[in-house]
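As promised in the previous annual report, we have extended the structural survey to additional targets. Below is the entry for Small ribosomal subunit biogenesis GTPase RsgA.
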Amino acid sequence: MTEGRIIKALSGYYDVKTDEGVFRCRGRGVFRKKKITPLVGDFVEFDKNTQGEGYILSVKPRENMLIRPPIANISQAIIVSSAVRPDFNPLLLDRFLVLIESKNIQPLIFITKKDLLPESEIVRIAGYKSLYEKIGYTVEFVSSGEADILHQLKSHLAGQVSVIAGQSGVGKSSLLNAINPSLQLKTDDISTSLGRGKHTTRHVELVEAGDGLVADTPGFGSLDLNDITAEELGDCFPEISERRPACKFRGCYHYKEPKCAVKQAVEEGIIAEHRYEHYIRFLDEINSRKPRY
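The corresponding structure token record, generated without further manual editing, is:
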């Protein structure tokens, strides 16, 4: 029996990467009976033959997984956020951060197009950079030039399994192509009805890049907070999670409760006001969604 990681899944076949090379495998029928679908990123055990093929026998427990794209055991999500065209959007950035934190994935924030900003805007965006770094996030603020982005990005890829996420129009597919030119990913024009680019990749694959692995399709097809409960939301904001034990009430939602350490930290300027406002906005969104049966 051999162990490896699935790096590609297509039409019922799985390419499994091992120290000995890549083996093309199929899944045992028992997976269908148990409704288990092996995902790209899964660690698996398989029987191999001399033709470089095999059958997957078991799937190891997952650290995390995404539905769109379908991928498991991601260690890092690179959030690409534009400083301009489209304008920097802290609310959207925080939504991505919450989704990533909820999946137990390490975020890395990349703010691009620094060279297209006037000096006053550079100072403003640098203020956001400093704020998120104080929370504990790694933030890179880079120019739009491909060489500058790649230089900063490649140092973060080593030893990681990464997905790239971010708002439409920030150049996620272009970034992937620059990391690995063999991908030749194409993105259609931005859909006027959906307001987002229509990606043409039909399968998911982990490709080698900067001594790490990167998913060849942008992450987070949906930005809904459907899988996050009101109780869990605070844990997706590190600065709120850190202060939760100091609240008077054990189940404090940091909203209307008295003697709340989080609200006190906001008043004292320890927690950024915009971050708290986004927390309340997301909390209202979660509380107002219809129950699923």
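The CA atoms of residues 28 and 34 lie 11 Å apart. Residues 188-201 have pLDDT under 50 and may be disordered. These points will be discussed at the next consortium meeting with the crystallography subgroup.
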